[in-house]
Each structure stands twice: as C-alpha cells, then as structure tokens.
Fold each of these.
Amino acid sequence: MDRKRSVGRAVTLLAVLGLTGTLVGVPIVAAERDDEAGAQLEWGECPDDVPDTPAPLQCATVPVPLDYSDPGGERIDIMISRLASQNPDKRRGVLLLNPGGPGGTGLDQPQLLTTQGIPASVLDSYDLIGMDTRGVGHSAPVSCGFTNDQPYFGNIPPYAVDDEAVAGQAKIAKAVAEQCAASDDAGRLAHLSTANMARDLDRIRAALGEDKASFLGYSYGSGLGAAYASMFPETSDRVVLDSNIGDTHLDHEGMRRYGSGMEETFPAFAKWVAARHDSYGLGRTPKEVRQTYFTLAEQLDEKPVDGINGAIFRLATFASLYKESMYGLMAQTWQSLRDSPGAAPSGDLPGKNQSTGGELSPNDNAWSVFLAVTCNDVEWPEDVRTYQRAVAEDRERHPLYGAAAANVLPCAYWQLGPSEPPVEINDTGPANVLVVQNQRDPVTPLRGGELVNEKFGERSRLVSVDGSGHGVYVLDDNPCALNVTTNFLVDGTMPKKDVRCQATR
C-alpha cells in the first residue's frame, strides 16, 4: 500500500466537515406579500461553479435588508436557484432547501438531491429552490481572511489532552475573533444570524409569488427550518428538519453533543472494521478496534506522522463516521499510520506553515459564515476555566472525542453580537413539522431530534431511524424514512404519532 497516499487522503477527508411567528423580545419584520414579485425575478443562467447536470438550473437574486431593524437601509442580494416542476397539474408550490453549515453553499442542492434519487413525486410537486444564504458564496460573501498558514483548523476545535491545551486553544480562538472583527470592512458579519436567514427565507417566498413555502433542511439547516417555522408559522407550509442540532441555534452544549454523537456512532464503524480484520488487522472485535483508536491517537499525540497528529487523527475519524462509504478509506489510513516508522516534525503539522505563503484558505468563506452565525445567535461562555472543566468532564464521559467538542471556539471572544435573543421554538401553530433523525449520528445525535420534537410539541412528529450516519432523507437508503417523508411532502400526511423506522441491513 502507498502509505503517503493513504495518509494524505486523511487530510482530504477533513474537507467533509468544511474544516471541515411571535418571539418574545425579538423584533420580527415579516416579508410582505408582493403579488408581482415572482414575475419581477430575472431568471437566467447560474454561475459557472453551479453544475448544469442532470438538468440545468435557473438562478436569480432576491434583494433583502442587510439589517431588518432598518428595512429601508442597505440591501444585499441573495442568490437562489430553481429546478422547476415539469408537471403543472401536480405542482403545489416551492420547496426551499438548505444543506447545513452554517456556511454551506446550496445553489447546487436541487442537483444533488436529484442525483441522489429524490422521488419523482416530489419533483412534480415542487420547484426545488436552492440558495446561498446571506454571507455565503454568491450572496454578499463575507471573509475573516483565513489563510492556509495560520493555526486554525476549522469549525470544530482540536482535541485537548489537558488544561494547558485548552489555554493554548483559547489564545488561538481569541486571535481569530479579533481577526474577524478587523476584517469586517463592509459591516456584514454582525447581521449574519439564524433569525435574519429565516427572515430572508420569507422574503424569498414572497419574491417567488407564493402564499406559503415548504422547507427541507439538513444539519444546521434543521435549526434554520425550526426558526422559519417558529417565526413564520402562517407562511411556512410543510417543514422537514433532517439531522437536528437540537434547537434553532448551536451553543456550547450543542457542540458538546458531538462527543456523545461519536460515542453512539463509532460502534458501527468498529463492527465494520472488526468484520474485516483479515484485511486491515485493526482488531478482531469492536472492543479491540476501539482500543486501536486510543493507541494510535496517543502515539500520534507524542509523534506525528506525515503531518498527522493525534488531534487531526481524531478529527478525521470523526468525519469518517458521516457515511459507511467512508469506512474503508479511514481503515486504510489507520493501517498506514500504525505501520509508519517515521515521525514528522511539529512544524509540518496542518495549519503550521504548510503553504508557501499567506494565501486565502479555500475554506475561508465557509468558516467565516459558521463563526458569524454561531457566535451571533447566542452568548457563549467567556471564562477559559469553564471550557477546561467541560473538556475534563467530557474527556472522561465521551473519551473518543469529547475533549474536542467541549473545547474553546472564537465565540468566547466574539466582538460583534448577539444583537437579539436566539429564536425560540414556537409550539403554537399548524402541525407542519416533520423531524427526521438517524439514531446514530456523529455530529447531530438522536438527542438533537428528540429535543426539537419536544419543543415543537403537537406541531411535530419524530421519525427516528435505526441507522448510522449524517443525513437521512434521500441521502440514506431507509425506505421507511423515505416513504414517510415523501408522503408528508407530497400529500401532507403527518404521522399520528412518532415513527420508528427499522434498520434495512
């Protein structure tokens, strides 16, 4: 096996993560209906970076207020895409889409869902509407100026082996928060929030000439959809929240659930690897595979190999749990690291002078949006000791990854927000929310779906799937979840009670 090629793939794997209503106290400025707005949208070709297969999309821009407390002030353009229904007799409206993040581009999401096999009945029933939410890609993009040579690894902080490591990460987080504030020349970062993105959704609905809009969101998109259904219960139609973060926003406790998510999902990977011990030699039982993980992580903490240290190894393994299709690559990477005789100097670690200069990171926009939205939505703890205690607790409680998920984000030092309270889930309104959730998910564990379902009360039903990985509807192959969700979107059939879908294999 080509060891360097396999280890290099582990770094590539990190890209998977992008590294990888009435509300009390919240001033809501609803989008007013403009009956001619849909006709005024100028549909045309999409940007070159948006795929034109299997069917070409059309794109348009929708102007929205930068600051909804000043609706007559500066405006920004939100770019949307459309895969139109080809069956006028069956078309019922529009389905707004969000892929997650926050910070993920969504202009190509109609294409992605089509290639993944979204049912024809859904394509007949809706125009699929993708978008780059505010700050992302083609929608008034923001930048903190992240470069390839700075010690920042992305949206999940690194695994901290002790209190000193937490303190070291706190210094990096503080510098990043200051960097973002200094880079915000256009004054846009302060206006990136889930509440404002939900308001944008309702503006898009109105611009499309629709009385109501349905919504399908994954991961962070579940939080955006929960906010949309809460702020605009009368104009939101059928809302599907897939792979849930647990609320309308991500906070420190939400991040800490990543630790429990890995604990719950790792056994599926360990069982898969153990069944292939003759190929990989990483353990004959899931227990032995788990021990191999700890052994490798500790060895890499002491002696990094080809730019991979213990923190990167843990992060790459966490990312590999998103889909079973990634298990083989991760197992090969474990093999390569176990068999490697050499160690790379610490200066070769990712994020430390890897590039030839300070060129902008390809993840700059995604990381910047993630931080702005996450830090603006809710207050985060500011005391380093709070994080040190949480890391120590989760290192024991969730030893696989808890000491990373509980570590310090730049939100502890954020200088721009929040400007309003986080959106509260509104349990008063139509029963129009379907919560879809794998029982084992590394980043959005089952508890997130349960929390959202509890908060919506009688407005929602939970579809829990005996499956592993991140993303259920269309992105996985469970026929029960597919049929329940499709029936809800197409016919409006809401289950009378929560549904448990059995495993398919």
Note: Confidence is low (pLDDT under 50) at residues 1-39, 343-356.
Amino acid sequence: MNEIDRLSEFLQRLTPLSRSCLLSELERLELCGIDMPGSADVQARLRAEFRKDGSTQARATSPSRYFFAPLELLLIDGAPEHPNMGRISRNTLTPIWEWICRDLLPTMARDYIKAINDQVTANNPKEVLKIASIFQTKVVKVLENTLASTESTEFARGKLAQYTASRSAFDDVKKMQQVLRAGAALPKFNEKLPEKIAKFDDGQVAQITARLDAFKKAHPEALPFALALVARRLKTSWQLVHLATRAAASKSAADVAATPYACVVAMVLDRLDDKRLALRIALRHNRVLIARDLLAEIYDTEYALKVRIDGIEHCEWGVRLQQLMDAIAALVAAEVSRFPANVGHILGSRRLRSHDTLGGKLSYLAWKGRDAVQDGAAAFRKLIGQT
C-alpha cells in the first residue's frame, strides 16, 4: 500500500498536462515493444482520469483538440518510429502540445487556452474556430523562425525531447507546420475526392492525378498529405502505387522512380511497416485471427509491389521491402514454433499466401504475358512513328 500511495502522490504532483503526456509516452513505449515494470498500473490510473472509456487512444483536451483539428484526417494511432510520409502519429500530439505551451509560446498559449475555454462555455463555435485559426497562424510563424537555422532547430529538438523519447516527434512538428501552412487547401482537396474508390482503374487514376497536379502546383510541400487523403479512399492501401506505375514508361523500377508520384511506393512501404507493428502487437496479445487478416494483407501488398514493379528487388524500395518481410517472417516463425511440429497453425497456412499456389502463379504469368504484349505494342508504335 505504501508503494501505491507514493505512486499516487507522485502522479498528483504532476500537472494534468504532464500526466496526459506521461500516459501517451508509456503507451508509445509499449507499442514499440519496450516493457516497463509497473507501467500497466500507472496506465490504468491515468486512463481512469483522462479516458473514461478506458481506451488507449489519446483524447485531446478542448483547447488542443481545436488547435490540432486540421490534422485529424492525417492522424494514425499507434507509435510508429519509422518514416510515415503524409501522416502524423496521434501519440505525439500531447508532447507537442506541452512543448508549445511551455517552451514555444507559453504566454500566447495561456491566453489561447483561456479564450477557447471562455468561448466554449459561451457556446460560440464560430468564435472558437476563429481563435484556433489565429493561434495556428502564430505557431506557424514562430516555427518558421525557429527552424530557420540549424542552431535554433537543434535547441527546439532538445526541448521537445524533454516530453517524449519518440524519434519521430520532431518530424511530426514539421509536418504539422506544413499542414497548417496549407490552410483550407487540404480540406477543399479532400471534399472533391470520391467518398470511396472501389476500383482504382485508369479513368480514376487520370482524374485523381489531374487533381493532384493542380494541388501540387499551388502547395508542393503539402503534396504527401494530399496523397494520404487519396489513400484513405482506396479499397487497399497498395493501390496507391497505381499513381506511379500507370504513369511510367515501363514497369521497370527506374521508370517508376522517374514519375512525378514515385513517392507513393515509399508510402505503401510505410503502411506495410504499420502492419508489421500491428502484427507484433496482435501476436503479443494472442489475437490470432487479427494476426491472420493482417498477414493476408501483408502478403497481398508484397505481391502487388513485386508484380507491378519489375526489378524492385534491386533498388532501395526492394531492400526495404525485403527487410520488412524478413522481420514479419521472424514474427510468424516465432509464433508457429510455440506449437508442436505435427500441429498446424493458422499463420502457417499456404492459403494466406495464395499467390504461391498454382492459381496464384498462373495469375502472375498472365500479368507478365499482358505486360509483354503491351510493351511490344508500345515499341511497335514508337518504331512506326520514327519511320
């Protein structure tokens, strides 16, 4: 009881914002696979305070929620430490907000919080949005000055590191700056997208590419976020590669890399890495059915990249893909090895990797045959044009 009392006393000495930040950091470490003795008890106490539903998803307080509202469609749950182009980790918002309030703009942040709370109490939503927009503009301007030199950037990075050990947090600050600087352009782009893109065929790719071209011309820095909004509409995330592969002169990795939207391949690999983390967590908590579905999606993505980009294994994309698949294979092998050799395991089923079956291989050959015909026709048209 003395240890529990001392723990409770310590937590109560922290400010509410610090306790919320501590909760986010403990959850981030857990998602990264780092075991912290006693962490479960601390998390349970803090969730009881901040999240009445006991969820592990961060719930921002009203002032910060209004400030971060423009990021909402770009937020991802979890704590990825790998690159995540066009998306921001929800878990970094709490430490970023504490950094803004304590170090970046302490006086203005205090005034902002009071003004927001007053207008929320007065039930004046229009004024709330106006106040939030003004503060967002101030933060963007201060960040522009802060990040203008290497010295001030490193100083800011060090200050933020006092609130989180996440390697991606400072990158999320820069992403936040880019999103806020784009203003209403991203919401307007998002509104014009189809609600769902069930089939990302040539017609849809052409339409989306035209919209992306116009957006990129006006807001080149914010392009990854526009691409992330497109990805949200797709049936499966790997379909995003169509923006690069269908614009390429051929299916070779070099030609795909030369297209204006070649960055989508890295974005698909980012999402594959997300699935790797999710798979590890599912296996850790014995959620085998969830792990099975994740593994099927992972294998589908691997197959899609290999069949649509020739020679991918010889480029940087292929190296990362192989590293991810090796890590995933190790997770699966560790899980399957827990059972006797004569006992089948659902994660070891060949059905999950249907592309290795006879039907899958025939489909692969059909794809290659169609590509050969299309490449031959293109070469013939080029030859005729030269003569």
Note: Residues 358-386 form the longest helix (29 residues).
Amino acid sequence: MLWSDPENEPPKELRDAQNMLRRLGLLVALAMVLFMVVSGLR
C-alpha cells in the first residue's frame, strides 16, 4: 500500500447497504427455518 492510499473505510452509504443486506439475509434464513418447521408439523 502506498502512503497516499485512502483508508480502508467504505463510504457510509455502502456500510448502510451492507447492514441492510445482512439483516435481510438473517430475516430470510429465519423465515426458511420457520417454514421448514411449519411444513414438518403437517
């Protein structure tokens, strides 16, 4: 890395988008688990 390189910090919009995608992925995973449990009970 050169001394003139910017710091390895993504912009705020990118960090917000990554947090939103992480929450969305967690929500989808929980929904899949719930769906499998419900379908297993029938």
Note: Residues 25 and 31 are 10 Å apart (CA to CA).
